[in-house]
Design brief:
Length: 256
Amino acid sequence: MSKLNSRDKFLDLSDYGRSAGKLFANSISHTRITPIHVTLLFGVSGLIAIYCIIQGFYWWASFFIILKSIIDAADGELARINQTPSYTGRYLDSVFDIILNFLIFTSIAMVTKTSFYYAYIAFFAVQLQGTLYNYYYVILRNMSEGGDTTSKIFEYKAPRALPGEKQSSVNILFAIYYLVYGFFDKIIHVLDPEAYKVKSFPSWFMSLLSIYGLGFQLLIIAIMLPLNLIEYIVPFFIIFSVFIFILIGIRRFFLR
């Protein structure tokens, strides 16, 4: 099952790891490796990247950041290939993402003259950017006939566990997910509360929006690190947030 039907698909600049992720998922689809195992693997790759940043191994840090993005695509692909979607995997994936993002900006502050104060503003900015992307993307997926509806537009309570997973695990992971993402979701919902009423988003808009996808954000970091532009990563992502209001303005005034 694809996340979107063919009519609603768009060029997702943040999803460059999808093809390699599919190959990896297909290669392990007949093994005992589960999507949860793959999620844990991308967490390990992210931690290695953070270690490399702290040690000053920026080329290796870039490699493991890109690898993390590829593996991140593979867990969902494996779940779709084996027809084993789970809320446990979805929430665990998201919780790992925000933890790794926090540690990446912490490590940047540790090895540069950037203050932790500004590093955490940049972290906040990155999460808000990603939340906007996910908000519109999930709306599109839920309105797309035959699309993936594991993610919901508004999530305020733990969903009913799917076959093969425990309700207790879903409840615990949802509580953690809501704790770390709920505030960002509320900000974006306040800024554009009527977005869910839109009948469709054009592909050009979604492609433009995908610059805020986590994969593209990490790609920017992976490019800046070996170019010795690490000092500019924090200010870049703070300034990059200006497009939040531009994208919301486009949606509110032109896409109804």
